[in-house]
Design goal:
One of its GO terms (molecular function) is phosphoric diester hydrolase activity. The chain is α/β, with parallel strands linked by helices and 334 residues long. Helices cover 38% and strands 13% of the residues. It has 14 helices and 9 strands. The protein has an 8-stranded parallel β-barrel with strand order 1-2-4-5-6-7-8-9, surrounded by 8 helices. The longest helix is centred in the first third of the chain and has 16 residues. The relative contact order is 0.18. The N terminus is likely disordered.
Length: 334
Amino acid sequence: MIRVLLAAASALVLAACSQGAASAPETEPDTQPEISGGPGTETASAEPATASVAAGLSTRLPELFDCLRETGGVAVAAHRGGFAPGYPENAIETMQYTYDQGIRVFEVDVAESRDGVLFLHHDDRFGRTIEGDGYNSDTDWSAIAGKRLKDVDGKVTSFHPPKLTDALLWAKETGAIVELDRKKTTSFANIWAAVVAAGAQGNVIMISYSDEEAAEIARVAPTAMMTASARGGRDIETLEALGVDRTNVIAWTGTREPDPPAFARLLDEGVEPAFGTLGRKGERLDDQYWADGDGSEYQRLVDDGVTLIATDEPYKVADWLTADDEGWSACASR
């Protein structure tokens, strides 16, 4: 991975987000896994290729992923924002750190407080990644905003839970893409209202876990890019019958074993396959693939046509591959 170290720009973006997070609590529009190893330290000089990777996102998401599919490119998605020692999951500071390593896609979790504020948090209750106890749905934003985040080792950091709005504004500023994973305390309608209010439609992929959820996303956000479970033409036709536009679909194919025949069927349908190597520590494919220190399995996924790889090891994967840099350079600013 070509490393992109834009320190001045990073500081400005984080300062703006920090000011937003520190402001008085407000209601959002429409009332609404552990990682092994840490990021590397290798950097690259400011060559023309680096400048291309650093360029912001100006291509519409359907065209971006079409381009990646057609050119053999891939997007590496950092699960829960790309966490590492000293950098907690679902934190803007962590996403900026990960962005500075050259990663451009971030899967984050969206919960809702008792008083209707959307914020980033995976679990139903506090304790594992946010200090204190209690539940998201029983706690007002004013109390949540003051809590501190814990890193992957359980150490309390100086970072605080961010509002979804601040994460969306950060994505717009940097040109990053955020995949939004709805938690049960909120709704797709509330999330999309916040996306529209932030003007971040071009930076967002919605995540669905069933055909019914995909249909709901298509209903409340007809233009939204989404991941939806599919392994071939019949699955795509089922989604279309539910009102889902296939041009907005990235086909999620699971986290267990790669399925090259399914990847081929999806490519024949003009739909981008996605695959996840993330999961429970010790059981996930990330751990199996890196057991020998060789990341060739990720290249095999790219060679088989996978266009989006979701991983708990984004730093290692992005270092190993070149198709992510090349794809972003070719497709992000067409």
